[in-house]
Amino acid sequence: MRHQTQAKTFEVEKIRKDFPILNRKVNGYPLVYFDNAATSQTPQQVIDVIVDYYSNYNANIHRGVHSLSQEATDKYEQARIKLQKHFNAEKPYEIIFTSGTTHGINLVASGFSEFLKEGDEILVSAMEHHSNIVPWQMLCERTGAILKVIPINLKGELIYSEYEKLINENTKLVFVNHVSNALGSVNPIKEIIEKAHANNAAVLIDGAQAAPHIKADVQALDVDFYVASAHKMCGPTGVGILYGKEAWLEKLPPYQGGGEMIATVSFEKTTYAGLPHKFEAGTPNICGGIAFGAAIDYMNQIGFDEIAAYEHELLEYATGKLKEIEGMKIYGEAEEKTAVISFNIEGLHPYDIGTLLDKMGIAVRTGHHCAQPVMDFFKIPGTVRASFSFYNSHDEIDSFIEAVKKAKMMLQ
Amino acid sequence: MTIQEKQKEVIEEFSMFDDWMQRYEYMIELGKSLPLIDEKYKIDENLIKGCQSKVWVHAELEGDKLVFTADSDAIITKGIVAILIRVFSNQHPSEIIEADTAFIDEIGLKEHLSPTRANGLVSMIKQLKMYAVAYQTQLN
């Protein structure tokens, strides 16, 4: 019954063969990797690109006269175009390579200190990751701007009516995640962006948790900035993107000084390079950027609609099975959510459950998920978080459920 | 009994178990059964902040021996805390300062002392030794 039509058309067994790590054993058990919201696994197709880069054309880019440098530059810039197309940016140079989402957020936050004055307001949601709160607090300290928080309800959804109340003519920037890392809730970013623009506020969306599941169209969203990380979408760590509208990127000051980001340098005056190089000081993560492009190709080949449908099926299946366990409490039951389940079992500490699951080869995250304000809201020290990807299977969920039951039995 | 003798005793106890599950069941048992600390000492000043589970430690001198009591909100951590207390408590501070924790590895619980584990145990051992250093100075 449970293997429905969707699962048959979605060839998960074939896809699993692309991921060598899924063959390994952990503590004597076959690995069940349910920590995809922390980082995703890498398919052979992407690993091959990394090996190919270091085996055949490793060179510094944008400056060499020699062939290897030219090849590497071409591949790197091709990757930028792949990302441009994927996120539907208007221009390739609106895609800035970063070291990851956190870097992108800090770049924008740092630049905004030039535009803010005392009394200006920044809105963030109550379901943000720590990396999304701290840069704004620092920005507020530097400029005298005020940080205001959009509250969430018990289902783990942003309260839109509260957002409407908070936004006003002093609001200069709105910052929310597309999808919450701790709860999986999908935020209504299109409405949020429209409302912000009606108040002349800019919007930065953190797409780190959304990008692996939802294809964001930055032009259709009319978003000012969108950030994401490669390592959550089958790519390597240490690379990500910042999308910014051309006009905004022109206006923002450079974030770091160094090679690559300059046009001319003298001790009297340095002029900055144009986009995207203005924000890409120093030698970038060349191989990472190219591999990110390959990861995007890989995921698009499978299809984001197909991925989303299959993951939703996994989510429903796992949620149903978990709810059969006595004492189960699931946090985050938004109408629209990605394949993330944050839960606790009454009377048990999430750390104990996570420890025993690991002994049975199951990788989950436990703790506050770097979202302490969310945990404070629910008045809990943390949760166990299982997050699924398109290469996970129903059988793995069955093993996970059995392991949770076993852990519960041992701990009670 | 010296710290080393106690460690040997714990190692022998754990050698009876065939697999991880028996070891963990035993630790969970230890965690559940032992009253480890007076509630009045479960205060923030005695809290060792691990990332995920809380660990409280209290130390006081009885004669020339240092007596530890401790607790944790996670049961497996509490089980290990119980083992550590059993080994290190009621010893002369100088013995505690010099003791190593290799026995944790030998009883198959090494993973809990990895710094990435963030369960407060690494900090707890550090704290036990710091108490020992402090009380050693007092004894001198």
TrEMBL record, chain A:
Keywords: Pyridoxal phosphate, Transferase. Its cofactor is pyridoxal 5'-phosphate. Residues 32-400 form the Aminotransferase class V domain. One of its GO terms (biological process) is cysteine metabolic process. Its EC number is 2.8.1.7. InterPro entries: Aminotrans_V_dom, Aminotrans_V_PyrdxlP_BS, Cys_dSase_SufS, Cysteine_dSase, PyrdxlP-dep_Trfase, PyrdxlP-dep_Trfase_major, PyrdxlP-dep_Trfase_small. Pfam families: Aminotran_5. The keyword Transferase applies. It catalyses: (sulfur carrier)-H + L-cysteine = (sulfur carrier)-SH + L-alanine. It is an enzyme of class 2 (transferase). CDD domains: SufS_like. One of its GO terms (molecular function) is pyridoxal phosphate binding. Catalyzes the removal of elemental sulfur and selenium atoms from L-cysteine, L-cystine, L-selenocysteine, and L-selenocystine to produce L-alanine. Belongs to the class-V pyridoxal-phosphate-dependent aminotransferase family. Csd subfamily. NCBIfam families: sufS. This is Cysteine desulfurase. It comes from Christiangramia crocea.
UniProtKB/TrEMBL annotation, chain B:
Residues 11-130 form the Fe-S metabolism associated domain. Signal peptide: none annotated. Belongs to the SufE family. This is SufE family protein. It comes from Christiangramia crocea.
